[in-house]
Amino acid sequence: MNSSTAKNGEAREYIESTPKRQGKVGRHCRRFWWVWLIAFCLSILVIMIVIVYAILPAVGQKELDKTVLNLHSFTILEPSPTSLLLSVNSTITGASGIAAHSRLEPMEVSFFLENHKPIQPFMSLQLPGIKGGSAVPVITTNVTTEITSVPGLTEFSALLLGSETLRVAIRGRTTLWAGKLHTKVNYNEVVTIKGFNQLEGMEIEEYTLLNQTQQADGSNLGGKVLIPNPTVFEIQMGDVHINMSLNGQTLGNGTIPGLHIRPGNNTYDFRAKVQTSALIPLATALGSGNPVVLDVRGNGTDINGVSIPWLAGPLSALNVKVPIKARE
């Protein structure tokens, strides 16, 4: 047999064997179709498990961590020793990827001071469901919240009143939905907040002597005081009591009744009982034409006679220089 015959035989054998192998594969598939179906379903299941339990949680958490909470207003009403009535107006920005097209279920978040060791949440707030987008409003109105730590809230109040800025951490856990898929995620945010900066800029704008015998509370001085509020906080503080002194000499005590402090520069009524022995030095100082600056320290606060300790303590720690505006 020559080489050409051998080559032709090999080619013929190869050509003939190929259909045989294809036939065997076809028969195998028809016979064991259910095995292949199960294998396919298992493959899809494995892929879905990887997506749901590995990829989606990691990607969802990463994208959620990129978002930023912008606080526009924070209102505290009906304060008591154990609870608050909260309203919050804010937006979440910076969402991208999966976070921009997903939604979060309603969740409860806790507030605590950043870097406080140990973590000491001082209050919590129920937030509504949040949909993805470039600027998503997050608004709650008049939600009654229990105080979870009076010492923690007292420390927060002290920083809010005494600092130019402070950082507050917010933490919660909820479910993120991406279409029909969902996963648990942690909401972790730290917000930089403007503080009252020790009530810098506080000033007595008007004052007048009162006939003490005609006043039910015995006040002999009244007027209006300017209290600047550079923060986003609106706080119902109740009757705020103060001690006053001038050049180291005690003048007496006063009250800013029903103080409801709002953002911006606002004036509020005040009344005071100045000691008789201090009236002449005070009148002399006011009549001299020189600037008169009082030392004012908080002495507690109450609403309907009920003391608010987490406000009273921080107010008592403030020693504010309050000038008396000269009369024109």
What this model shows, in words?
With 328 residues, the protein is α+β, with helices and mostly antiparallel strands. The chain folds into 2 domains: 130 residues, Sandwich (Immunoglobulin-like), CATH 2.60.40; 127 residues, Sandwich (Immunoglobulin-like). Helix content is 29%, strand content 46%. The chain contains 5 helices and 17 strands. Strands 1, 2, 7, 10, 11, 12, 13, 14, 15, 16 and 17 form an 11-stranded mixed β-sheet that branches. Helix 3 packs parallel to helix 5. The longest helix has 33 residues.
Summarize the structure.
This protein is 29% helix and 46% strand.
Give the topology, please.
Elements (H helix, E strand, L loop, with lengths): L2 H29 L1 H33 L2 E10 L5 E11 L9 E2 L2 E7 L9 E5 L2 E2 L3 E12 L3 H13 L2 E14 L2 E14 L8 E7 L11 E9 L3 E14 L2 E13 L2 E11 L1 H12 L4 E12 L2 E2 L1 H9 L1 E6 L4
Parallel strand pairs: 1-12
Antiparallel strand pairs: 1-2, 2-7, 3-6, 3-8, 4-5, 4-8, 8-9, 10-11, 11-14, 12-13, 12-15, 13-14, 15-16, 15-17
Helix pairs in contact: 3-5
